[in-house]
């Protein structure tokens, strides 16, 4: 049988970002933490952590974490039927897209997390990295726009987000006085989330425009809206994120007939136990209520 | 003299996240891009890019980018006095903290960016990584809470952000019916931005509490506020970000006498030229207006 104290030390060091803090969290000394990790590495004959440039698990460390998190989830099911075994709150690490986290996510899972005393470790990743972290066992679930299932995981559709190309009325008057002409699109600065964000390119392709365009890069959902509101550019913004600004007229669509629908899929470990099943039901419930 | 077409190909591949898109941006074929990078690597006798797990510059590639971006900035000064040399908009890569980007940043630099047709590549990094990217020449400036200057760069104070421990009134009634007792703090779930976020620990230390506490991790400024509003936890939120919620009473401070002040410093290349100087003046102006 695996010595779970060793795996717990590894998981805690990574969750808390350091040996001191992991020791505090487990109520043992920093040197006891180091000793447990050393024991683990000696047994495996290889390192489980790299210390620099940042603290992270090696591939074998990731596999251990994966296993440990699955065991913790399964233990939760057991302790819910055997209350005498009760333990402190469980943690669940989930990768998701920035725009879901900035908009509907918290409301969708709030009741569920409170009822189950569940703590979330959220990480923002685009779909390729999110699904890779899921394959590596670093996250227990991933919310993204790819329907491609991961081996050992299930994948359920969770509706879609609607994106519209928004800017201030002043911006529209300045850069698009004659509408979305080729010349205007070639000069009007856009706002793009990051180098892998294809929404802007897809929108422009829908408009029949395939040339290069000037753009800011802004990898923050809220910063993105703030930049649009400050008149720095136009950008593809989730409708639900800009409802107040659209109602107030501080943001308008530069092409009212055009929008993009980005589907969302919920990927989760098939054997994640009851907690994961109940969380999935909470997400499906929100999705049905919205649609 | 360096062949700047080669450096431009490198910078464009990294800015656009791929060879195809870089080709589109420069109006040349993907194979012409590859050829330029190959030429560069042959001259240097070493690679300038790594392709996996993600596209990024090698250390020597970073040094070339640093140099290229400085040359681009200096060129801008020249073309502003020699309009016949005019070129398309310049880009400036800047690292900053997530909370500034989610709150005051866009308003502070909007006029400046419009007047100068300047495009921004923003990256969110905490201070250690942001300053390291500055030392490596990957970013031209860094906004963070460290006053420690980087060699070759200047560092100016830009005021501070005030953080308060906020939660919903329901949350306070549920978890802190008798105030911030030791027992309550040991059980009330907090929200923490990420493993390196020390604000929560500093706040608790100010309250005389030094034990472990349950917490969610949520690396998104807007998601953080949404999680607090959904009643999932209390967290250290910038006062300027929660003004509407504080006025409406949907968020309240769990300890009205307590707050944390996080100073902000603007680090920028000493020889960044006039553009960088003018941008710095725009930021100082906003800071003076606010204080």
UniProtKB/TrEMBL annotation, chains A, B:
Coiled coil spans: none
GO molecular function, one term: DNA binding
Domain HTH lysR-type: from-to ranges: 2-58
UniProt superkingdom: Bacteria
Protein name per the record: LysR family transcriptional regulator (Chromosome initiation inhibitor)
InterPro entries: ArgP (IPR017685), LTTR (IPR050176), LysR_HTH_N (IPR000847), LysR_subst-bd (IPR005119), WH-like_DNA-bd_sf (IPR036388), WH_DNA-bd_sf (IPR036390)
Family: Belongs to the LysR transcriptional regulatory family.
NCBIfam families: argP, PRK03635.1, PRK13348.1
Source organism of this protein record: Marinobacter persicus
């Amino acid at each position: 049988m695996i010595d779970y104290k060793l795996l717990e030390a590894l998981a805690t060091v990574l969750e808390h970002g350091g040996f001191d803090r992991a020791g505090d969290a487990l109520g043992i000394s920093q040197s006891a933490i180091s000793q447990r990790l050393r024991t683990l590495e000696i047994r495996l004959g290889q390192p489980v952590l790299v210390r620099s440039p940042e603290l992270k698990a090696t591939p074998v460390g990731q596999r251990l974490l994966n296993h440990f998190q699955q065991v913790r989830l399964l233990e939760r099911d057991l302790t819910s039927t055997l209350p005498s075994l009760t333990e402190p709150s469980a943690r669940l690490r989930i990768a998701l897209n920035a725009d879901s986290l900035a908009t509907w996510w918290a409301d969708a899972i709030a009741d569920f997390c409170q009822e189950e005393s569940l703590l979330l470790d959220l990480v923002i990743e685009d779909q390729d990295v999110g699904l890779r972290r899921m394959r590596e066992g670093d996250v227990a679930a991933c919310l993204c726009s790819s329907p491609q299932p991961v081996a050992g995981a299930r994948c359920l559709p969770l509706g879609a987000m609607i994106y519209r190309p928004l800017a201030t009325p002043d911006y529209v008057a300045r850069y698009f006085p004659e509408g979305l002409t080729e010349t205007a699109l070639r000069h009007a600065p856009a706002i793009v989330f990051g180098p892998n964000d294809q929404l802007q390119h897809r929108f422009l392709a829908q408009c029949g425009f395939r040339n290069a365009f000037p753009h800011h890069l802004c990898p923050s959902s809220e910063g993105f809206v703030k930049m649009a509101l400050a008149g720095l550019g136009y950008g593809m913004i989730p409708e639900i994120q800009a409802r107040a600004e659209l109602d107030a007229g501080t943001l308008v669509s530069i092409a009212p007939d055009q929008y993009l629908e980005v589907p969302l899929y919920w990927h989760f470990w098939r054997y994640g136990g009851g907690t994961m099943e109940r969380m999935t039901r909470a997400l499906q419930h929100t999705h049905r209520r919205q649609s």
